Predict the 3D structure of the following.
Amino acid sequence: MRVKLSVSRWILAAVLVAFLVLSPSDTVAAETKFQARLVWGTDEMKPENPNLKEIDAKTKEKLKAVFKWKNYFEVETQTVVVGPNELKKVKMSSKCEIEIQELGKDGFEVKLFGEGKLTKKVKQVFPTGDCLVLAGDDKNSNAWLVMLCPLQK
Amino acid sequence: MRSLLNKMNTDQILKLQAYLDNEVSSGEARRIANWLSRDAEALQLFQELKEIKAAMAENELTVSVPESRDFYWSKIQRGIESAPVARPTVAPWWFRIGLPFAAALATLAVLMSVTTFDLPSLRLRSAVYEIDGSGSDDGSITFHSQSEGMTVVWIPSGQY
């Protein structure tokens, strides 16, 4: 009987530790720094707009692994810091704007506006290093992508 | 006898032996009997062969079995019955079910890792287990790529 009690005690302890480790924290969320990028995906080798620069190789490989286009050019890059319960607006271009609302343990709500009109609303909890990519078709079989990546502190 | 054998051809000698052993037809036996009545040397050879045959039959060594016939053959029968029977080996049930299932899973994993399939304007290279694709009412498609560490929301044309 003594042996049984000690085993169940260990099991209970393990379950409690696992619960504490895995459960989301109730503490107040710290600020989160994001990199927001507007990217143009295309099979063209060189864009007509000279202001566009090719995206970094690491990001390019990630995008090529998911999307079909061969080349990706950065249209706009901005860094945004979102505090607890804070709403931040980021203008990516004359036609594209995003809003990031911190929701505490529920993560973030990201809204995409196209020409002033709400296009898409997404709730996202950002696992470490993971990015949120909102994308769609552009003219001439190209694509636009809005990449929102949390930056490491 | 040697001189007699030298005078006759092989065929004649064989016929005499067959006649001696009653292994010829009745017609052939009559012809041989006529031949023996006319050929003294053939008759002499026949007689010598007959004596040799009798001597061998009479002086054949007898082999005695130290036990009775029934006991001897029953021992052989028991030996045959007690010999181990080769039984076919059957693999355990989990092996028989698990191996084909595992092979099918492995094949599927290989195929999915190199398979591309098309969603509108997308080519996804991630394995199927990475994709938690879901459609929404507005037609957008959301999926997560574990390997590339990104959640993609594809917004179809006309939505923006």
User: Anything to note?
Assistant: Confidence is low (pLDDT under 50) at residues 116-121, 123-134 of chain B. Chain B touches chain A at residues 120-126, 138, 140, 142, 145, 147-157, 159-160 (CB under 8 Å). The helical segments of chain B are 2-7, 10-20, 26-38, 40-58, 69-82, 93-114. Chain B is about 55% helix and 10% strand.
